[in-house]
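Researcher: Re-running this chain for the archive, since the previous output was lost when a drive failed. Same request as before.
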Amino acid sequence: MSRVNMIKNIKELYSKTIILLKTGNFYETYGRDAYIISYLFNYQIKQEKQNNIPKSGFCKNAISKEEKFKVVNFMREFIVLVDSKMDNYPKKDIELKNRIRVNSFDMLELCYEANCTENINKKKETINKIIAKIKVIDFLLNMSYDKQIINQKQYYKFGLKLDDITKYIFGWLNSINMKKDN
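Model: Regenerated structure tokens:
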């Protein structure tokens, strides 16, 4: 079975996941995933010779970027969850709903910005802005729960996703601080 066919089969099962294939010292991704990886991390896109589909990848020595993959996926999952649960907001609380959505997308945008910045101090400043956005989103969700717009189960799901994002953001910040100290 070719690599591309294997990726297609996996993608059928896990359509919302970026699939990375390890080949030697590289991780490669194909199709739509290649465009996502290219956009997020400024990697080149090449055409796979045999199947003429886009591919992108990176050396395994750049694997510290794995943290950013995970946090972006957690953010995307959080935004999808927020979008799916926001239909029940009463009109009087529409501003609360809009603030949660806007801050969620701002958080994702800041993640992209931090990833594209080479300046360490600017990167750390941007990551701290992400942390501030997480705190604002948490507060807004807490208000939604207190107003009984979202139920306990939904509030718990939102909290778990935000916790995952927070862990990876702090891990990213700590890895930058460790590199700077060395």
